[in-house]
Design a protein that fits this description.
Chain A: This is Conserved domain protein. Chain A: Keywords: Membrane, Transmembrane, Transmembrane helix. Chain B: Keywords: ATP-binding, Nucleotide-binding, Transport. Chain B: This is ABC transporter, ATP-binding protein. Chain B: GO terms for molecular function: ATP binding; ATP hydrolysis activity. The structure holds two protein chains of two kinds. Helices cover 63% and strands 4% of the residues of chain A. By secondary structure, chain A is mainly alpha-helical. Chain A folds into two domains: 262 residues, no CATH class; 125 residues, no CATH class. Chain A has a two-stranded antiparallel sheet. Chain A has a two-stranded antiparallel sheet with strand order 2-3. The two termini of chain A are 36 Å apart. Helix content of chain B is 33%, strand content 29%. Chain B has two domains: 212 residues, Rossmann fold (3-Layer(aba) Sandwich), CATH 3.40.50.300; 66 residues, Alpha-Beta Plaits. Chain B is of the alpha/beta class. The chains are: A mainly alpha, B alpha/beta. The interface between A and B is medium-sized, with 27 and 37 residues.
């Protein structure tokens, strides 16, 4: 009964309507729905002789040649583009750091005075932004540098540059080891979507990719505004004085918030299933795929974000909670990759394609660990929120100087 | 189970500030007034009794239940805070239903009690209104209804009449009088008229201490022979205010009728004793305990 009351309070609030509209439009209509109608997706099997796009290939000679040439160019120009924390940053190295890159290049190429050598040996072409590009067709890595050593040296270079460069382990393959996808690969991918994924399971991953992205941010507005309503409405003391247990009330509010957050996801899951059915044979589709994926993929995100935001709301004013969550989300977004390159501690799991079932399944253990971790995190944070709420209810929170500094909810004298 | 609240040597400190200082009180059934100026410690005592603030020392038993048993205390206490409000977009009947759930009441009981109480506080016709549409007086009446919803043995009402117009204030006091027939009602206020009109027993608080407690008539009795009136030329007013605790002044042309409290005969020609009102008695109590500097300033 209390859960239903709380749920009613959430879903009939103005902030929920804004949340619902934002989630549905930003995560669904402007992404999934419009993608499906844009012709960007292929709905027919590939035909021989077509262009099937690029894919990461296992081709060490190409990788080492391309990456080394790129690093030499950057070194001679002393201009490196990196994306630490998601923001573009141009690095110009000085002193020992510059020398360290020189040493790395020497190890890779066997050339000691690399700068002089390049300037005297290769012609220059200028790119559209006046960047000097030395054409280095034959320069490769030394034969005695193994692929593992090559990766170690590139990782070291990335560290010298402050991280986020195209030489990082996360980015190097996408930048220097791409090759055209073959017809066989394209056909196998398509067949996997149709037969293994029964179409909608593949699209459900794309659907969750978009929702997960926004679900890591938007609930903070709902949680912060909803939980601050007691204080804003001057109803806090009244709520505190009732006999209900702190655990019961907090649990009901947590459950109501998470349920409300899932409403736009489940609503769009219906629309997404309908949308996919416009392009494929419905008889071949898994009609429940969108819902299954929503629960295993998006629900843990909702639990984690709601739990952490509840905890922050117990300590800080609503506006501070929103700023912190927004900052964290912004960093997570731009540090991550679009594809299945995620770890156990990445809140947002990206898989921006309806294909590549195998890539997803290869990471399934990490996926499960990740979702369990964030579910547990959300529940632990909620338990801590209950503890803080109980202290505030008893007038014990805010009495110590530390907590007073952290909290705006001070005791009255 | 005792029908009284026993407060023994209760203290409450916030860092170096003492909000309650060795408070000793016994409060029985009926209306009990807690009188004191703003910042006297009334709200702290009210919140401590409602289990919303921990005490720093002493003991409190509410109808035999120690204050540390918060769940039980909350179930037997109704609390109307100084600044009562609820979610602005919630309807009056929804408010009571929601707060009833938070008090662990069954659906049938919530419905029955809410209907009865809304009729009692004259809000039944407004039950579909949103909280934000209620006037100040209506909100306070809703406050009383919610505080009585779970049939508490103790009702704690903190500064309920502040900001109400005279008619609403009288209506509210009468309402409190009705509900005090079968329970303990503690009314905290800085408005002497509220105590005078509704309480048989009272206490006077200042700077966290209880200065006086007993029957309101006894407070009046203590002030007998201490209240004086005199009519003087208005230009002598500053002198009078610097010598006595003035409780009233009525300007009459160039003359002013002054009412003041003084222990002993004042050195003032034409001064005459008069019957004390509760306001005089309260000021005399503060004066006697050294809480008022002569001149009318704290």
């Amino acid at each position: 009964m209390l859960f239903l009351k709380e749920l009613r309070r959430v879903v009939f609030s103005k902030i929920f309507i804004l949340f619902f509209v934002a989630e549905v439009f930003m995560a669904f209509f402007t992404q999934f729905w419009s993608d499906m109608g844009s012709g960007f997706r292929n709905y027919a099997p590939p035909v021989p002789g077509g262009d099937y796009g690029m894919t990461v290939v296992d081709d060490p000679p190409t990788l080492t040649q391309e990456a080394t040439a790129s690093l030499i160019n950057d070194y001679v120009n002393n201009e490196y583009t990196t994306y630490p924390y998601g923001f573009i940053h141009t690095v110009h190295l000085k002193g020992s750091d510059k020398d360290k890159i020189s040493v790395i290049l020497s190890k890779l190429t066997g050339i000691v005075e690399i700068e002089q050598y390049v300037r005297s040996s290769f012609e220059i072409k200028y790119t559209y932004d006046e960047y000097k590009q030395y054409i280095i067709p034959e320069l490769g890595v030394l034969n005695n540098v193994s692929i593992d050593e090559f990766h170690a040296l590139m990782t070291e270079a990335d560290k010298i540059l402050g991280g986020g460069s195209k030489y990082s382990p996360k980015e190097i393959m996408y930048n220097f080891s791409l090759g055209p996808k073959s017809y066989e690969e394209a056909l196998a991918e398509y067949n996997s979507l149709i037969y293994d994924d029964r179409i909608t399971n593949g699209y459900a991953r794309l659907f969750c990719d978009y929702h997960g992205f926004f679900m890591a941010l938007l609930p903070v507005f709902l949680v912060a505004v909803y939980l601050s309503a007691d204080k804003r409405s001057k109803a806090e003391q009244l709520i505190f004085s009732r006999s209900i247990s702190s655990v019961k009330l907090a649990a009901a509010r947590f459950a109501a918030l998470v349920t409300a957050e899932m409403i736009p996801v489940l609503f769009t899951a219906i629309l997404a299933t309908y949308r996919v059915a416009q392009f494929y044979d419905p008889a071949m589709m898994d009609m429940f795929a969108m819902f299954k994926y929503s629960f295993i993929w998006i629900l843990p995100t909702a639990i984690a974000v709601t739990g952490t935001d509840m905890l922050l709301s117990g300590l800080l004013p609503a506006v501070a909670v929103v700023i912190i969550q927004f900052g964290a989300w912004f960093m997570m977004m731009f540090m991550g990759s679009l594809y299945e390159d995620f770890g156990v501690f990445d809140l947002v799991i990206r898989h921006n394609t309806e294909y590549d079932r195998q890539g997803f399944m290869d990471n399934i253990t990490v996926f499960v660990q990740n979702r369990l971790f964030f579910t547990a995190l959300g529940l632990i944070c909620t338990a801590l929120y209950v503890f803080i709420w109980k202290l505030r209810r008893e007038g014990r929170f805010g009495e110590s100087k530390l907590l007073s500094k952290l909290s705006l909810h001070r005791s009255e004298t | 189970m005792d029908d009284k609240i026993e407060i023994r040597k209760v203290s409450k400190r916030y860092g170096s500030k003492t909000a309650l200082d060795n408070v000793d009180l016994t409060i029985g059934k009926g209306m009990f007034g807690l009188l004191g100026r703003n910042g006297a410690g009334k709200t702290t005592l009210m919140k401590t009794l409602a289990a919303l603030h921990p005490k720093s020392g002493g003991t409190i038993r509410v109808c035999g239940v120690p204050i540390e048993d918060r769940k039980k205390i909350r179930s037997m206490t109704g609390y109307l805070p100084q600044e009562f409000s609820m979610y602005p977009t919630m309807r009056v009947d929804e408010c009571l239903d929601y707060l009833g759930i938070l008090s662990g009441m069954s659906k049938a009981l919530r419905k029955e009690r809410a209907e009865m109480l809304l009729k009692k506080v004259n809000l039944y016709g407004h039950r579909q209104k949103k909280v934000k549409e209620l006037s100040g007086g209506m909100k306070r009446r809703l406050g009383i209804a919610q505080a009585l919803l779970h049939e508490p043995k103790v009702l704690i009402v903190d500064e309920p009449t502040a900001g109400l117009d005279p008619e609403e204030r009288i209506r509210f006091r009468n309402l409190l009088g009705e509900v005090a027939e079968d329970r303990i009602v503690i009314l905290s206020t800085h408005i002497v008229g509220d105590i005078e009109a509704s309480c048989e027993m009272a206490a006077v608080m200042n700077e966290g201490k209880i200065l006086w407690t007993g029957n309101v008539k006894d407070l009046l009795h203590e002030a007998e022979g201490k209240v004086w009136t005199v009519t003087v030329e208005s230009r002598f007013l500053p002198q009078i205010k610097s010598l006595y605790s003035v409780t009233g002044m009525v300007m009459q042309g160039s003359q002013t009728a002054v009412r003041f409290v003084h222990d002993g005969a004042p050195d003032l020609t034409g001064a005459a004793q008069t019957d004390p009102g509760l306001e005089d008695a309260y000021i005399f109590c503060l004066f006697k305990n050294g809480c008022i500097d002569i001149g009318g300033e704290d």
